[in-house]
Amino acid sequence: ETLSSTRDTLDFLMNFEELDYFSYYPCSLLVNTKMDSASYKEQYGIISRKNKVFMTRKHKAMLDERDEEDEIVIGTKTMPVAEWKEAFLLAYAATFLYNHRTIYFLLKYLNRTHGVRPLEFIEFLLKHKGSPELTLLSRIFAIIKTQARSVVNGNGVTSTLAECEGVQLTCHETALVLTLVYPDKFYDEIERVTERFLSVQGIQIAAA
Question: Over the range 28-67, which residues count as b (16 or more CB within 10 Å of their CB) and which as e?
Fold first, then answer.
């Protein structure tokens, strides 16, 4: 796998009309398998980190040392750690925006009516995530980036926010919570980015 092949896969899945949902999971090394052997790791340049895999949607007060631990691949000869973090951000941004239906219908409209591939619009969003007027989107994408760093540092695959009231969630679920707590702000920012995207692409949409 490479950053490019990850991107191609996401692009295919979101542009394939027979599918409206996909699942993305980081690769894990299972004990007593060929992939976990020293020779296999050396051959493919596998870099991994052990992470606590807390049961998602579990309150942080219930976490303890008996929770499961996975050894997650964070880099290989064909995907350096820096690119793995980019792939993580892209995949879970797509999961949040497409799978959780936050902008699913916008993506489908742009695709079917104007030929815009969903990944093209998502990458445009990510490109403008630091814009000062997009504070909520910037926060959402920062959560996903922070989770990638957490995995790389071996600090776990779930996290929580004040808005989650102590419940541990995966990064795309945490992003969804923010959308539900601040829906008007979220869709106001999506509208701003959409208008900017349409202007750049030279696409005109008649007012309803």
Answer: ebeeeeeeeeeeebeeeebbbbebbebeeebeeeeeeeee
